[in-house]
Design brief:
By secondary structure, the protein is an all-alpha fold. It contains six helices and two strands.
C-alpha cells in the first residue's frame, strides 16, 4: 500500500524514482536505437519529468486512474473506455498500465497515438510564455 504522506519520505521516494528513470534514460541514450532523435538527452529529461508528474503513487506505472487525472489536468477529460483504449495503444506487455519504457517508446517512436498527440500539444502550449515586465515605449512613427 502506498504511503501518501508528504514531507521528507515522499521527497525521498520521488528522488529514488528520478534516479531509476535517469538510469533508464542512460540506457536509451547509449542503445543507439534512438540516435536519429535530435536533442535526445533534453527530450528524455522532459519525458522523465512528465512521467514522474503523472505517476502519482510512485509505482513506476501510469494506471487508469492516474491517466484519468492526467487528462483532466490537461483539460482533456476522457471516458473510462477511451482511457482503456489509450493505454492499450501503448501497453506492449498487456499489464493494463503504461510503464516508463512504454512511455518512452511512445514519445520517441514514429507511431502517433492519441496520448502522444495530447502530450505534445500540451508541451507546445506550455512553451508560449507571455512577455514580462514593462512594455517598450513606442511612438506613432513606429506604427505600420
Amino acid at each position: 500500500m502506498a504511503n501518501h504522506q508528504g514531507g521528507k519520505q515522499w521527497g525521498a521516494l520521488k528522488e529514488q524514482q528520478k534516479i531509476e528513470l535517469d538510469a533508464k534514460n542512460q540506457e536509451y541514450e547509449s542503445s543507439g536505437k534512438w540516435d536519429d532523435v535530435e536533442n535526445l538527452p533534453d527530450k528524455l529529461i522532459s519525458y522523465r519529468d512528465q512521467f514522474m508528474e503523472f505517476d502519482e503513487d510512485n509505482s513506476g506505472d501510469i494506471d487508469l486512474m492516474e491517466l484519468k487525472r492526467m487528462m483532466e489536468k490537461l483539460g482533456q477529460a476522457k471516458t473510462h473506455l477511451e482511457l482503456k483504449k489509450m493505454i492499450a495503444e501503448v501497453d506492449t506487455n498487456n499489464s493494463g498500465t503504461i510503464h516508463y519504457d512504454e512511455f518512452l517508446n511512445m514519445m520517441l517512436g514514429k507511431k502517433s497515438t492519441i496520448l502522444k498527440l495530447i502530450l505534445m500539444y500540451e508541451a507546445m502550449a506550455k512553451e508560449k510564455e507571455t512577455p514580462k515586465g514593462v512594455a517598450p515605449k513606442r511612438s506613432l512613427a513606429d506604427l505600420p
